[in-house]
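Show me any protein, fold above all:
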Amino acid sequence: MKKMTRLMTAVCLTMAAGAAGMGPATAQASEQFVTRGSQAAYAGPAEFFTGSVTVQPLFGNYAGAPYGGAYVTFAAGARSNWHTHPAGQRLLVLNGTCWTQIWDGQKSVANAGDSIWCPKDIKHWHGASPDGEMTHLALTHVDDQGKNVTWLEAVSDEQYHSK
């Protein structure tokens, strides 16, 4: 009976977490769980992005894995605002060409199959080239206070088109 109660508790936690886009907050390092179903995609808010951006959440952070994941698709020429991550972010370019730049630095180009590490507290932006759509998988780490990003000002057209 105890085993069945534990199993039902785990199932309920997983279902609730799946609906919220994350695993159970109480999961132990030795437990495995599946997040069922895809989460609702949403348009990237205009206060954080220029151009058309779609965010498809995959999972949120939970005990033992302090990061969340999402597919982010940028239309040609779309980009994020300048921002920082208090605990870093890994981007895996799935299709298209990703442009990214750190503050006062040169633009970098990453293509499908490439990955980008955005170190903690480094001001940067990323988005699609002007020539086509780009999708990346964003694995965003969360700091001890539960924060994963600090949004800053928009990237100007001049900054976007700079070398």
